[in-house]
Specification:
It is a single chain. It is built from ten helices and ten strands. It is an alpha/beta fold and 332 residues long. The chain has an eight-stranded mixed β-sheet with strand order 2-4-5-6-7-8-10-9. It has a two-stranded parallel ribbon with strand order 1-3. The termini are far apart. One of its GO terms (molecular function) is hydrolase activity, hydrolyzing O-glycosyl compounds.
Length: 332
Amino acid sequence: MASQSPRKKRLVAVAIVSFLSLVAVAVWAVVVVVPRIGESNPLSGQQLYVYPESSASLAAQSGNSADAAAIAEIANTPAAIWVLPEVHPTDKVAAFVDSVALAAEAENTTPVFVVYGIPDRDCQSESAGGLSAEEYPAWVSAIGTGLLNHASVVILEPDSLSLATECGNLTQRVEQVRDAASRLVDTNLFIDAPGPAIYLDGGHSSWLDAQTMAGILRSAGIDKVQGFASNTSNFNDTASEVAYANELSSLTGNAHYVIDTSRNGNGSTSSAEWCNPSGRALGDTPGAVEDGGAYDGNLWIKNPGESDGKCNGGPAAGEWWQAGALALVRAS
């Protein structure tokens, strides 16, 4: 075989180098876009952000001095910031979550967001609403853009998976939640960059059994996110929730979890009433559980003092209810 000319040798060498460079880039890209899974506790060592424009904060500033002192107990405790399309539409939501995350970073704290805009939200119940199936993906993507390179916690669509079994849209809901989680995760392209720790809806100990909930969570992509949230906006005592969540975790590849302790100080009523039940109390202060297990910590996901709906004397869902807030504080 005739030997190659110096020019051909140079061309071959350049081609090989170019090919190896492309391979290296491709391998690097594969490494950095792998979604982070719940192997560590994102709450560990972190202080949580207190949102200064929460309903409780505004109420504490406007009420009489006696009420203000009581409401301040709620206002000064870190609670989740609920992101709703009715308040934060697609063209404004990225700027909103970015501004909150920046404010939290300025205080060396971590914000907790609740993303709550899935189509047919709450199945036409007290918190009915949400976006259309066509509008929802873009809204979630905008949230992901706003959270890019910010450390945060996201509770993704409370009740969405648990309630779907009653609403008859389980397959669609699972697909929507899975897609929404991927849109939030995919904005965090670099493993060493901060991004949202996402918890899916895990129901609670008085709702679906752990086996059923685990199957739904696996279909919704629990292995691609931090874990699940239990007891969101509910009242079950922490011990019952830990037992349930530990069983659910064991059935989902040891997925991590958080528990909503905002109003579970007295546990639930004997009838497990969920809409503004009387006699309830504030629960454990939000923060990490530093035991190295799947239990990441307690959060105030529901904002104490905001109504569950037009029931037991409360206003519409999500509206501030001064009497209900004072009752929670005084029972604690």
